[in-house]
Each structure stands twice: as structure tokens, then as C-alpha cells.
């Protein structure tokens, strides 16, 4: 009746055991099974340890990093670039670039490009980290718009495809408003999701270079293009595209709302397919990229991955990397993919997937992420940015005032960074 | 005279009715979430948010069995019971010794030390977990049961001392003087006289901390590593993936974990209500 | 029974021995981490890197003088605390007094009122999100049923109501504790005093004012101090309902500290915030105790 616990006494880490920390409760059983398989194939013991939820997992990793007690392999949820750089600097991360490039970059090429973006530091990055790859992606996802086809039809949407241009999108909103159907739901109570949408629009409106220039401080946030980005949210609100309460929604709530057909649109990641299918197998939905505002530039979407890092201080790091290579190999990735319908990070296994998740896979061509850029925005500026958009949606601020407040915070943070640089230089 | 009686009779009737109305209204708001949680345990992932009625259309009794096994509740349950008993006993002994000293004994620096304990209660330190972790490593207590128990005693210490001292202050000195005349040592007084009289305070502290220890999971995740040492909350976390939450199993799991607390509370609250009256009467 | 102690131990005042275990625990598990946090308040540190930069008092200065959001969050917590002191404790006192009278089924009420604190944060979040939901929530549903449908709104996303709704959830969860402690205090009052007062012809209000209140002052103080401390540190409810939003409307001190610590990589700054917060709480608590001492004397 009691599952798995053998009640072993506290043991000293046996020298032949690789310990892996992660927070993925839904894949815990699959991981344990793979560990057993690996032991049969190679005789090496792998032990997966689960710590959830993510916030607690992150705290544990931080505390252990301080005490130099990180395990051989540990997963990283979307890590701030700055933290990732600090981990590398503090010697907790193995540089796996050589292994990626081995054999004509065989390992590297087995992955979707997007999966590597999150784990690679590009040339000229602001943190002074040696360019290269430091983490191994084991699954990948991206975030797009999902439409409930039945509700769309009910509102009077006759086209076979969801909207692909901004005016079409607004028109759909008007239809939904008229029919009294709630619009989009998304975890916009979690600021990063708002940022994702805004960022996608920004890249489309002004292009990668101008976004990068803004982050570098060369272009102010009061620039008309940025005001346009902020104004999009007001437009969405006015045209009935946003559900009531979207600004305080957690993503799980949004998923459950969409799954139970209480909203017509969802802005969510590919992991949502699992949730929708389990809660409402009869749901008819279609996946599409956000509609273009600027027709002359491409639309981009965000990628995300779950990655594992090898601890550079581990005496077993060679074996650890080998294990990760095995884990990202086609056979194992297929197991993980079929378990939970996440998109595998290995390109080769995509053929085992089917259904709406394939639409997400198709989107892998256009993925980006702020981490692709060598410079990242100050977290406080991002916070004012995201919270400002929340204010616009609830009608408390205008796009212009939000742009101004973001720029103000930006200027403050620049001054602060210079102050610290000066203090550091004087030491 | 006749009129007065009638007025009071009607007033009493209304008061009784009114009192019950208020009490019942508040009770409904308290019971509702528990009822919803309990009923949701019988539903499935598909019906839990669609079937809004309290009484489920189908009863999936197996959710409890599944939650128990998949959650690994067997071991975690025993661990939680152990931790709760250990923390409460340790806390009561240590806190009551200190509270008695602050209340009855004289020594230099008493005021400062007591104020420090009070200040500790008032100044929370989120962010202490890093220092705590490093400290436990230095003491060799990381990933040990003791290392998990001690910090939790410390967390409840200041409040427990405060409550007990306030309580001890109210106990009439005559009882202790009598005992001292009888030849009882200080520690004897503490153990035989004062502690039994403080049952209501101890019961309050026991309930406060039982709840805290039972629901604790952050320290467990950070300090412990062996699955075999994990408390109950670890079992519940299985059902909450980063993206995918198995709601009905989670509700079943939570129901399982809530029942012991309610039982403990049922048991303890009698002591709280008993009051010191009984103790004084005996003395 | 007199314990035979070795001579040297006997010379040590028993007071010190009694408090020793508690002092050791405090020193190890509170004072040591506290000093570390204090130290970090003077450094800029991201929480991971091996390098820290000494910045003196500048972080403290920033918090006290320039961090508008910090003081907003402090005011939000204070707002909820005031509501809690008045309504939560007022209700708890009323209920405790009703049950204290020896009402029939009093035992059952004692158990029921304690259920909210027992519930886990997850259940509380799910239920209240459902109640307050703007689209299909129970509150809007009931309002339209009794004809007040025009009051419907998205309670937790509307800046005018979000904070108050969070306060309601907090009070709902917390009144069980206040109820319990107040009831314990009331039960300690000897019934004979009530009878004597009634024989003397005192009205219910007089009894309350002259018998109940004076004897309950220590209990009132305890409840008040605990309410202030507990409510100012509110966090779990925020996380499971509004996440500090919309905008900054439901941010509270602890959510700001955690945000800086874990999400903005400003661990040192977060430590400084913790200390400023601690000082505010100490001032509040000491003020309460002084006021109640003065009241006791009147």
C-alpha cells in the first residue's frame, strides 16, 4: 500500500549515485522509471529528488548554492539571466559547450533551436560570461493564442481560421462582446505572462533591434512605438477581447476557465494541452500565433524550456553529462513526450505527438525570448512595465502615463547601476 | 411587575433567536468551504469545476485510496505525527521553564532577556532560510529529523513564552508558597503545581503549533532530502504539478490531512474551556 | 523532594538554568540568522554570487525615503489590520460571548468556527476565487438573485474592491483564533461575579463594562497584539488570490520582500526591507502595550 518508500536509514551519498533535483511532480514517476532503466543499461544509480512547488524549489537551490551543497544535476526553472550568470560565476555550472560541439555538433543539432536559446550565453553578453551553452533542455514549450471554436462560432465568427491580423482580432472582440461571451483568459496576474504578450507585440511592431536598443537605454520607453504597444491593451479591453478579472488571474485559473468553456480565447503555453484534454476531452480548439499588428514584420512567440544543469563541483560530472545525453536521446525523449504530452526538446521525436500540440510544434520556427538578447532589462523596470499594463486594463492609467513611469524607473535604475559600479571601482 | 416579566421574556426569546441566527449564519460560511472540498474529493478532473453543485452526481470513492497510495501518505503521516508530538513537547517544556522563570524567579537581566524574546516575536525575517540552512549544515543537522524539529520549536517559542508568562502571572502566589512550605523544590513546583494549572494555556499553544507543524512544508523541502523523512505536505505536493494540478485527488488528499487536525482540536478545546476555576477550587 | 545538586550548580540562580534552553534556541535559530540578515542589509547582493558590494546605509535610505511602493504596501497591510481589529475581533468577541453564555450546542459552534484556520491555503484560495470571480462567481450570482445585479463586478480585479475582498478572506480565516482565545478568557471569569452583579441590579451593558472588560484586558491585549502582528505579515492569501495586483493595489510588505528577494535578485535590499518592517512592527506592538497599560490603570 505504501508506494516506493523502503525506509532506508540516512545514508552517506554512495560514490556511484548521481542525484538529480527537480520540481516536476507530473513527471516524477516517469523520471524514476527512466532512472531504473539507466541502471539496467549502465549500472549507474540515478536518484531523482522532487521538491515543489517552484517557489520553494528555487529557495532550496539558492540556499544550497550558498552552502556549496548543490547536487550533481539540478533543474532550473526559467532563471533570470543574472542569476544564471551568478551561478556560473560561483562555479556551480559546468560549461558543456565542448560536448555540444563534439562530433560536428551532433548533440547540439538534435535540439530545437529554441531550447538552446535559454541555455546559451551569446557573444558580448552583459554579464561577462564566456559565450557557450551551460544547460541541457529536456522539454520545450511556446506560448500562443488558443481559440474555442464552438464559442467563436456562437459569436458569429464564420472564417475557418482564427484572426491573423489585428483589425480582424478586434472585430472578433466586438462579436464576442455583443454575444456576451467572455474574451481572453490568461495568467496575467503573473506579470511575466503579460510581459510575454507585450514583448511579442513589441518585436512585431518595432523589430528586434529597436527592442534591444531600448533595453540598452538608447531608446526611451516614451517612444511612440512603445506607447503603441501599451495602447494595444487598451484596445483589447475596449473591444471586449479581455475577460473580467484577467489582471489578477493565475494561469491555472485561466486554464480551468478556458477548459470549462467559460472563455473564448486563452493565451497559454503548449503545456495547456494536457490540462484542457484532461478537464474537457470534448473541447474543440485551435492554436494560432498572436495576430500581427505590423504586417511587414514577422510575429514572434516566446519559447520556454525545462533544463538541467550539471554542477561543476560534482565529482561525478562526467557521468552526469553522459546521463543527460542519454536523457535527451530520442528513445527517452519519446517516453517523456508520450507521458505528458509536452513537446520534447529533441527534434527527432516529434512524430509521436499528435493533435493540437502539433500546432505548437509548428510555431517553434518563430520563437524568441528576451534571453536571446545579450542584454536584459532591469527586473524593476519590467515590474513597472507589467504592472502598468495591468493599470491600463483596469482603466486606471493611460498608455502615455505608463510609458512615462516605465521610463522614469529605467532612468532610476541606470543611475543606481552606475552608482554601484562607482563603488565597486573604488574598492 | 407583570409587564416587566413579559418584556424580559420576549426580550430573552428574541435574544436567543437572534443569537442563534448570527451563530448559524457564521457557521454556514465556515462549513461551506470544507463541504465543497469534501464533495470535490468525489468528483473527477472533468467534473470538478463544471458540476458546481455540492452533492456530486457520481461518487468516486476510489479517489481517497488513490490519493493515499500515490501520495505515499503512509510514511509521511507517521512522520508528521512524530514531528508534531516532538515539537509540541519540546516547545512546552522549554517555554514553560522560561516563562516560569520570567514570572516567578529573580535574576539579573531578566527584563532584557524577556524583551528579547518579545522582540523576536515581532520581527519576522523572511530570508532567514539561507542562514538557517548554512547553520544546520555547520551543526551537522541538515537532512536530519532533529534539524527539522528544532527550528520549528524556535519559531513557536516567543509566543508560547508570552502566553505562558501572562498565564502564570495570574496564578495566585499562595499556592506556590504553600508548596514551598511543604518543602517542594523550584522545579518540583514547576512540574507538579504550575504546569497542571496552566492546561488551558498549554492547550492553546498546542493547537497553534500543531496546525503550524502539520501544514509546514517549506522548511521540510529545504532542510530534508530523504523521502522517508518528509512530512505529510510533501505527499500533497505530488498532485500539484508546475502546470498540471489533479484537483479531485488533491482535494481527497487534503481531506485526509485535515481530519487528524480536527480530531486533535476536538480533543484539545475541552481543556481550553475548562478554565482555571477548577484548579483554583482544588487548591 | 529536594534535589541534591553539586555545590557549584547550586550557586547559579535557578532562573538562569530555567531560561537556558530557550535562550540557546533563540540564539541559534533566531539571533544568528537575524544578524546575518542585518549584515546583508548593508550589502548589494543577488542571492547567488560569491561577491557582495558594501553599500552602507543607501539601501535603507532608498527604502525609507524613495520606495513609494513599499510604503503603499505598508498602508495596505495597515488597512487590512484596522479592518481586522474592528470587524474580525468584534465579531469574534460577540460570538465568544454568545457561546460563553452556555448556549445550547455551544460545543458544536466551537468546532465549526475553528474550521477556517484549519483549511489549507490552497482550498481557501480556490473557494474565495470562485466566490469573488467576475464571470461566474457565487457572489455575483447571489447578488443578481436578490435583485442587486448592478453591483456585480470582478471583485478581486477591481482596484476599489480588491484590497477589501482580500481583507474579508483574511478576517474569515482569522476570526476562529480570536474567538478561541476570547472564549478562553471569558470562561476564566468566575460566574459568581456575574451573579453578584445581576443581584445588584446591573444591566447587561453595565455587567459588560464593569465586570467583563476589566477582567478581559490582558486577553484583549493578547488578541490585539497577535492580530496586528499576524495581519501585517499577511502573504499566503495575497499569493493565492491577487498576487499583489491589479497593479500594486494589493501589494503587502511581505510580498514586496519576497519579490525583491527571489524575483528581482536584490537579496540585500530585501534584507534591509525586512529590518525596516521589523522596526515598524516593534513600534506598533510596543505602542499597543503601552496604551493598554495606561488603560489598565484607569
Question: Would you give an account of this structure?
Answer:
The complex is a heterotrimer of chains A (427), B (283) and C (298). Chain A has helices spanning 28-42, 54-66, 81-89, 97-109, 113-117, 149-155, 166-179, 191-216, 224-238, 251-259, 272-279, 317-327, 330-340, 357-362, 379-393, 399-426; strands at residues 17-22, 45-50, 73-76, 120-121, 132-133, 136-148, 184-185, 265-269, 285-288, 301-310, 343-344, 367-368. Chain A has two domains: 17-141 and 304-371, Periplasmic binding protein-like II (D-Maltodextrin-Binding Protein, domain 2); 143-302 and 376-416, Periplasmic binding protein-like II (D-Maltodextrin-Binding Protein, domain 2), CATH 3.40.190. The N and C termini of chain A lie far apart (62 Å). In chain A, the strands form two sheets. In chain A, strands 1, 2, 3, 6, 7, 8, 9, 10, 11 and 12 form a ten-stranded mixed β-sheet that branches. The radius of gyration of chain A is 23 Å and the shape is globular. Chain A is of the alpha/beta class and 427 residues long. Chain B has a single domain, classed as MetI-like (MetI-like fold, Orthogonal Bundle). Helices cover 75% and strands 0% of the residues of chain B. In chain B, helix 9 (199-214) packs antiparallel against helix 12 (247-274). Chain B is flat, with a radius of gyration of 24 Å. Chain C contains 14 helices and two strands. A two-stranded antiparallel ribbon of chain C has the order 1-2. In chain C, a hairpin with an 8-residue loop joins strand 1 (43-44) and strand 2. Chains in contact: A-B, A-C, B-C. At the B-C interface, helix 1, helix 3, helix 4, helix 5 and helix 6 of B face helix 2, helix 4, helix 5, helix 6 and helix 7 of C.
Amino acid at each position: 500500500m505504501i508506494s516506493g518508500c523502503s525506509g532506508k536509514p540516512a545514508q552517506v551519498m554512495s560514490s556511484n549515485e548521481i542525484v538529480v533535483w527537480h520540481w516536476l511532480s507530473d513527471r516524477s514517476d516517469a523520471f524514476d522509471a527512466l532512472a531504473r532503466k539507466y541502471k539496467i543499461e549502465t549500472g549507474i544509480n540515478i536518484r531523482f529528488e522532487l521538491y515543489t512547488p517552484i517557489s520553494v524549489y528555487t529557495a532550496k537551490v539558492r540556499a544550497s548554492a550558498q552552502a556549496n551543497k548543490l547536487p550533481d544535476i539540478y533543474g532550473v526553472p526559467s532563471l533570470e539571466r543574472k542569476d544564471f550568470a551568478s551561478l556560473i560565476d560561483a562555479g556551480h555550472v559546468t560549461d558543456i559547450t565542448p560536448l555540444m560541439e563534439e562530433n560536428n555538433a551532433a548533440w547540439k543539432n538534435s535540439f530545437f533551436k529554441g531550447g538552446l536559446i535559454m541555455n546559451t550565453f551569446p557573444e558580448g553578453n552583459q554579464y561577462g560570461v564566456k559565450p557557450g551553452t551551460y544547460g541541457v533542455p529536456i522539454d520545450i514549450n511556446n506560448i500562443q493564442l488558443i481559440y474555442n471554436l464552438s464559442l467563436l462560432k456562437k459569436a458569429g465568427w464564420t472564417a475557418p481560421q482564427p484572426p491573423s491580423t489585428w483589425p480582424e482580432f478586434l472585430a472578433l472582440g466586438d462579436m464576442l462582446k455583443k454575444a456576451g461571451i467572455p474574451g481572453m483568459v490568461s495568467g496575467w496576474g503573473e506579470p511575466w505572462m503579460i510581459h510575454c504578450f507585450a514583448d511579442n507585440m513589441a518585436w512585431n511592431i518595432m523589430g528586434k533591434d529597436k527592442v534591444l536598443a531600448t533595453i540598452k537605454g538608447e531608446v526611451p520607453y516614451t517612444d511612440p512605438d512603445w506607447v503603441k504597444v501599451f495602447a494595444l491593451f487598451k484596445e483589447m479591453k475596449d473591444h471586449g477581447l479581455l475577460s473580467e478579472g484577467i489582471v489578477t488571474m493565475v494561469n491555472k485559473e485561466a486554464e480551468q476557465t478556458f477548459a470549462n468553456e467559460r472563455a473564448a480565447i486563452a493565451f497559454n503555453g503548449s503545456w495547456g494541452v494536457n490540462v484542457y484534454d484532461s478537464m474537457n476531452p470534448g473541447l474543440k480548439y485551435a492554436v494560432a500565433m498572436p495576430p500581427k499588428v505590423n504586417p511587414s514584420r514577422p510575429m514572434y512567440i516566446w519559447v520556454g524550456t525545462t533544463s538541467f544543469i550539471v554542477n561543476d563541483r560534482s565529482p561525478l560530472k562526467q557521468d552526469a553529462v553522459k546521463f543527460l545525453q542519454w536523457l535527451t536521446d530520442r528513445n527517452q525523449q519519446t517516453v517523456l513526450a508520450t507521458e505528458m504530452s509536452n513537446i520534447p526538446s529533441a527534434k527527432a521525436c516529434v512524430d509521436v505527438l499528435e493533435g493540437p500540440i502539433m500546432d505548437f510544434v509548428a510555431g517553434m520556427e518563430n520563437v524568441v525570448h528576451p534571453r536571446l538578447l545579450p542584454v536584459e532589462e532591469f527586473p524593476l523596470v519590467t515590474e513597472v512595465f507589467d504592472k502598468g499594463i495591468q493599470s491600463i486594463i483596469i482603466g486606471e492609467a493611460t498608455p502615455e502615463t505608463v510609458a512615462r513611469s516605465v521610463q522614469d524607473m529605467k532612468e532610476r535604475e541606470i543611475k543606481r547601476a552606475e552608482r554601484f559600479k562607482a563603488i565597486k571601482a573604488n574598492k | 411587575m407583570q409587564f416587566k416579566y413579559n418584556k424580559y421574556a420576549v426580550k430573552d426569546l428574541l435574544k436567543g433567536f437572534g443569537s442563534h441566527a448570527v451563530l448559524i449564519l457564521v457557521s454556514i460560511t465556515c462549513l461551506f468551504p470544507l463541504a465543497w472540498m469534501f464533495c470535490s474529493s468525489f468528483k473527477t478532473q472533468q467534473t470538478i469545476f463544471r458540476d458546481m453543485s455540492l452533492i456530486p452526481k457520481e461518487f468516486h470513492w476510489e479517489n481517497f485510496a488513490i490519493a493515499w497510495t500515490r501520495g505515499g501518505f503512509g510514511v509521511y503521516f507517521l512522520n508528521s505525527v512524530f514531528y508534531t508530538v516532538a515539537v509540541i513537547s519540546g516547545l512546552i517544556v522549554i517555554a514553560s521553564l522560561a516563562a516560569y522563570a520570567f514570572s516567578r524567579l529573580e535574576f539579573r537581566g531578566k527584563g532584557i532577556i524577556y524583551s528579547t524574546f518579545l522582540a523576536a516575536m515581532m520581527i519576522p525575517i523572511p530570508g532567514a532560510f539561507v542562514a538557517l540552512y548554512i547553520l544546520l549544515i555547520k551543526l551537522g543537522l541538515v537532512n536530519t529529523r532533529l534539524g527539522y524539529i528544532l527550528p520549528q520549536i524556535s519559531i513557536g517559542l516567543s509566543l508560547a513564552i508570552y502566553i505562558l508568562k501572562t498565564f502564570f502571572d495570574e496564578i495566585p502566589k499562595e499556592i506556590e508558597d504553600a508548596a514551598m512550605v511543604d518543602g517542594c523544590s523550584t522545579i518540583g513546583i514547576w512540574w507538579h503545581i504550575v504546569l497542571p494549572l496552566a492546561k488551558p494555556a498549554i492547550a492553546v499553544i498546542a493547537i497553534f503549533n500543531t496546525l503550524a507543524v502539520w501544514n509546514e512544508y517549506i522548511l521540510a523541502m529545504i532542510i530534508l532530502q530523504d523521502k522517508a523523512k518528509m512530512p505529510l505536505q510533501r505527499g500533497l505536493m505530488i498532485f500539484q504539478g508546475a502546470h498540471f494540478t489533479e484537483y479531485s485527488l488533491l482535494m481527497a488528499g487534503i481531506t485526509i490531512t485535515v481530519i487528524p487536525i480536527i480530531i486533535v482540536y476536538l480533543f484539545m478545546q475541552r481543556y481550553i474551556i475548562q478554565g482555571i476555576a477548577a484548579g483554583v477550587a482544588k487548591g | 523532594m529536594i534535589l541534591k545538586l553539586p555545590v557549584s550548580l547550586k550557586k547559579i540562580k535557578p532562573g538562569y538554568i530555567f531560561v537556558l534552553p530557550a535562550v540557546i534556541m533563540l540564539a541559534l535559530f533566531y539571533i544568528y540568522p537575524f544578524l546575518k540578515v542585518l549584515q546583508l542589509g548593508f550589502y548589494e547582493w543577488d542571492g547567488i554570487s560569491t561577491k557582495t558590494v558594501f553599500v552602507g546605509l543607501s539601501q535603507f535610505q532608498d527604502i525609507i525615503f524613495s520606495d513609494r511602493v513599499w510604503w503603499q504596501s505598508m498602508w495596505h497591510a495597515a488597512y487590512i489590520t484596522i479592518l481586522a481589529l474592528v470587524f474580525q475581533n468584534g465579531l469574534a468577541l460577540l460570538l465568544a460571548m454568545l457561546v460563553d453564555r452556555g448556549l445550547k450546542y455551544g460545543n458544536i459552534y466551537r468546532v465549526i468556527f475553528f474550521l477556517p484556520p484549519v483549511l489549507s491555503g490552497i482550498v481557501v484560495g480556490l473557494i474565495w476565487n470562485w466566490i469573488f470571480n467576475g464571470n461566474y462567481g457565487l457572489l455575483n450570482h447571489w447578488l443578481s438573485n436578490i435583485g442587486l445585479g448592478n453591483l456585480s463586478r470582478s471583485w478581486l480585479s477591481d482596484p476599489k474592491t480588491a484590497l477589501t475582498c482580500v481583507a474579508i478572506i483574511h478576517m474569515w480565516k482569522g476570526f476562529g483564533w480570536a474567538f478561541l482565545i476570547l472564549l478562553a478568557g471569558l470562561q476564566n471569569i468566575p460566574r459568581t461575579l456575574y451573579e453578584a452583579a445581576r443581584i445588584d441590579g446591573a444591566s447587561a451593558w453595565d455587567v459588560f463594562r464593569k465586570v467583563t472588560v476589566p477582567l478581559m484586558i490582558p486577553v484583549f491585549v493578547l488578541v490585539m497584539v497577535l492580530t496586528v502582528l499576524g495581519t501585517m505579515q499577511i502573504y499566503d492569501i495575497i499569493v493565492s488570490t491577487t498576487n499583489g495586483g491589479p497593479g500594486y493595489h494589493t501589494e503587502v510588505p511581505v510580498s514586496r520582500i519576497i519579490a525583491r528577494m527571489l524575483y528581482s535578485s536584490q537579496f540585500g535590499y530585501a534584507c534591509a526591507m525586512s529590518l525596516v518592517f521589523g522596526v515598524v512592527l516593534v513600534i506598533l506592538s510596543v505602542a499597543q502595550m503601552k496604551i493598554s497599560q495606561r488603560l489598565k490603570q484607569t
